[in-house]
């Protein structure tokens, strides 16, 4: 299915599941694509879902941007409008959690509830990036050949499509607690492989460094009159203390920390993730 934005960019989108109000999913990145197939299956008897690829990424139309949170918020609103949703339940993962929060702050009257999964809070990057990078390298070093190959590929000025995929799989393998088996789920994330939009990734990450951690953002979150469910995996290599800033600022927040899960909690604790989401959206 194609959603056309107000500036004419065509976005891939898909609705699955039964009747009822759907949960709209915002994938991570920036510059990646929807990898929520497993989540849609996991929630099949809980809620229908809407998945979509952000502009310039995955199955959506390649374009020249613009790469701004404001533009991506407008794209998400185009998805909402296309499916005829007056108010939506919204879930964002990682960078998608930042996007979903940005949308809720811009359009609180259009959000019924927000599920914030594995984000990095609203503080500056210094709250989490250094510890994340150290743990990332430590995880890869569990298999020295993986670290060496990742460093080799990262140092190259140009990489083939296959090398880009290999580098991504190696990088994503650090997200999984089972170090010996980590390449298998990381490989599934790269299948199919659409290629990473590096420009989108760079520009949006630079924007976050300018805007996140500002008094204005804290104040906006303190005034957000939307119920928010924060779901964290305790074993995420991004320190979960970074999310404390958001949890403290929000007036209507509930937080669930899954002790045996990492950055993709539905992959490592599907039962716990499903139950947290079910209770958070539907109540006991």
TrEMBL record:
| Keywords of the record | Hydrolase
Q: Name one GO cellular component term.
A: membrane
What's a Pfam family in this record? Abhydrolase_1
Which segments cross the bilayer? none
Q: Name one GO biological process term.
A: proteolysis
Q: Which residue range or ranges hold the AB hydrolase-1 domain?
A: 22-266
Molecular-function GO term, any one? aminopeptidase activity
Q: Which SUPFAM superfamilies match?
A: alpha/beta-Hydrolases (SSF53474)
InterPro entries attached to this UniProt entry? AB_hydrolase_1 (IPR000073), AB_hydrolase_fold (IPR029058), AB_hydrolase_sf (IPR050266), Peptidase_S33 (IPR002410)
- PANTHER family, alphabetized: AB HYDROLASE SUPERFAMILY PROTEIN YCLE, MONOACYLGLYCEROL LIPASE
Family label: Belongs to the peptidase S33 family.
- Record's protein name: Alpha/beta hydrolase
């Amino acid at each position: 299915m194609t959603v056309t934005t107000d500036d004419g960019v065509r976005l891939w989108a898909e609705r699955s599941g039964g009747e009822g109000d759907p949960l709209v999913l915002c994938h991570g990145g920036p510059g990646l694509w929807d990898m929520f197939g497993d989540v849609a299956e996991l929630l099949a008897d809980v809620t229908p879902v809407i998945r979509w690829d952000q502009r310039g990424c995955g199955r959506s139309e390649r374009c020249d941007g613009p790469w701004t949170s404001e533009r991506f918020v407008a794209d998400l609103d185009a998805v909402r409008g296309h499916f005829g949703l007056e108010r939506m339940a919204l879930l964002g993962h990682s960078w998608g959690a930042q996007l979903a929060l940005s949308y809720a702050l811009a359009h609180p009257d259009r959000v019924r509830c927000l599920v914030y999964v594995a984000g990095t809070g609203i503080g500056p990057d210094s709250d989490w990036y250094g510890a994340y990078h150290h743990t990332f390298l430590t995880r890869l070093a569990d298999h020295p050949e993986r670290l060496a190959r990742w460093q080799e590929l990262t140092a190259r000025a140009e990489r083939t499509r296959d090398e880009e995929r290999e580098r991504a799989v190696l990088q994503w393998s650090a997200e999984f607690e089972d170090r010996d088996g980590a390449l298998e789920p990381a490989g599934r994330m790269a299948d199919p492989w659409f290629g990473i939009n590096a420009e989108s990734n760079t520009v949006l990450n630079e924007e976050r460094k300018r805007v996140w951690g500002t008094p204005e953002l804290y104040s906006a979150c303190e005034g957000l009159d939307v119920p928010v469910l924060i779901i964290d995996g305790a074993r995420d290599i991004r320190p979960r203390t970074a999310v404390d800033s958001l949890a403290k600022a929000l007036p209507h927040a509930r937080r669930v920390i899954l002790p045996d899960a990492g950055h993709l909690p539905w992959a490592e604790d599907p039962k716990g993730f499903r139950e947290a989401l079910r209770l958070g959206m539907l109540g006991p």
